[in-house]
């Protein structure tokens, strides 16, 4: 099934320099947002208390949040689990000196759980605390650092893979596209002020993988078209490659967005962050594979000779680094 005519002649490279300029502007804006506003880290990264509560009769999430707000817990995160009677309440700990002992942390945790129970019973007396757990700030900081290492590890691994599989210009273009997609996605997330937790971090890693997959599909066609074409300059060949893969790109992005959209709109608060980041990443990743990665390899001076298989006696090998 072809949504777009594979023989169409849309001149994507015509806007190549403009799209690269816009991408650079978005990257600068994203860095500025992250530098000034930063990410609103959740309990997973900052530390705090997780309280599991249950009710004898079903109650809505909105009612639980209303009771907590009335009790002074304005920023508590409420999630359902196991039905409409059980809830997980996450409360980020207040900033302290970070030197609290285990005994004092346990006492503070028990006191906070008692305050939560009191706030809930003010609306519904049948509320009960099933368990409470304290997550230390040191553990949260370790998770945050490990998450950053995971992102860097993925980017480095992808770079090595692309350098081996493709010509070096493709690797540079793909990584530039990846950096743009990641910065843009996290920048938009920071702008919305939503809580950044472990599911959100998992979504960022998923966006990196999705974006590079889409870029590799287009690059495969670019390499194939360069090798099989007898005429046409690099810009024409790149346009031809993008046009022939456009239907596949749009269909893949649309079907993936439908699945992820379901997580965002009806998956509940626990999956909202994951769904939002994935939706943003799918959109920007699809656009970047067309308007960033390909104009970048054109800017780096790709040619047919760069992609032709080399033989041992080819003098071109001696001139290449």
- The fraction of residues in strands falls at 5-15%
Low-confidence segments: 312-321
List SSEs in N-to-C order: HEHEHEEHEHHEHHHHHH
CATH-assigned homologous superfamily of the largest domain: Multidrug efflux transporter AcrB transmembrane domain
**Pairing-aware structural class of the strands and helices?**
alpha+beta
Total helical elements: 12
Overview of the molecule:
It is built from twelve helices and six strands. The chain is an alpha+beta fold and 321 residues long. The protein folds into two domains: 12-40 and 140-306, Multidrug efflux transporter AcrB transmembrane fold; 48-135, 2-Layer Sandwich (Alpha-Beta Plaits). The protein has a four-stranded antiparallel beta sheet with strand order 3-4-2-5. Strands 1-6 form a two-stranded parallel sheet. The model is unreliable at 312-321 (pLDDT under 50).
